């Protein structure tokens, strides 16, 4: 027996049980009514109800988040675009585009008096110290950061940094030659070696010291965990949409992923502090940031920490991915590979002649790299923005304010509406010559691998120089052959960045294989 507090009369346990059952039933009914009303609203009355897309995705953002966590976002959205057209609704309040005009409408400079499209906070998780880096900052904060950081990535800075680029490109070549030794050939994982080189290089530019990957011929522990740290960020997006689940973070996200995310950030902070204490004036990112930070208007220590971590990941993993993809597609297309070999070895008589100014003007080298970025974009993910107050026209259609809009790079670059033979590797489409004529219908304006407008990639000139230099030196010094086990290498998952498997390649001394590339 229990006491009825309200009346002071006794109540039987059966009555109490019946009351609880009734309360639970009421809650279930209320939830059922809520989800029914919500479903009807999102499908038939929501401002985006006329946009095509999967019905379940229009009801809940969990569908889109599931694609992300599974590493299938890029391929799924490509399939949806092919099915529904250039604009697809992928969540209750989200649209994704692939047509070329959307780049200008979403990411381009806005007319005077028109508000900018801010980055969607739902899909840009902050750094572990809670401070925005340049990729997550908006409006005045972003403008200030970009103004301060631009100097570190200027043409002048790149000219001063060329020696550092050569140091690590040469170290990569010497390490591979040392492994080859007197052997006829050697099979190596190029994914691993490209990561060694790019992480060491960007580590030096960001922190004033490499990670020691090339010197020790193995991954630094920070490099090993960085991709898992990125994957953890994919899980964290769930809590923006469902903050009620935040107390369950320890159960819903693998603990080792969260720990790796914290550890990777802490190491970058440690390295930044060590670089700042050194006081050197070498031409790395830090020296430019300090040089142009005056009168208390520079980056705060926390902002330097946040941006340094971003620089290392964005400047290393993306370049290593591009180089890996480039070698894979070249070796799957022997005629393209031989043509590039002829160009590289025809321009340079000896390795010491290779320099940034010459390789920047080599037509087929740059066409190959452009085509690799199209067919295998280093960042295959979306770049979501929020439509500003008053709404905006995107790709010819009005979209109300508050909607999350984006372009899927992978889908846009693989669209038959944008490119002839979109799934085929044809560097010739990027040449300024008669042979590119068959690709006259290509909508080149849809190709924006470094994003577009005032928030395009700050480090694109450095990335281009880095990939040109490393690829040129590899092709000048070695003949390459793809191993059978890596024939299907391009089938990959992505978690904002590609999850790349080993790329097994046979290395031979230049000119020592059974064919003569220069014949």
Automatic annotation (TrEMBL):
CDD domains membership: CYP60B-like
Family from the record: Belongs to the cytochrome P450 family.
Lineage: Eukaryota, Fungi, Dikarya, Ascomycota, Pezizomycotina
Keyword line: Heme, Iron, Metal-binding, Monooxygenase, Oxidoreductase
Pfam family, one: p450
GO molecular function annotations of the record: heme binding; iron ion binding; monooxygenase activity; oxidoreductase activity, acting on paired donors, with incorporation or reduction of molecular oxygen
Protein name: Uncharacterized protein
Binding site for heme: 457
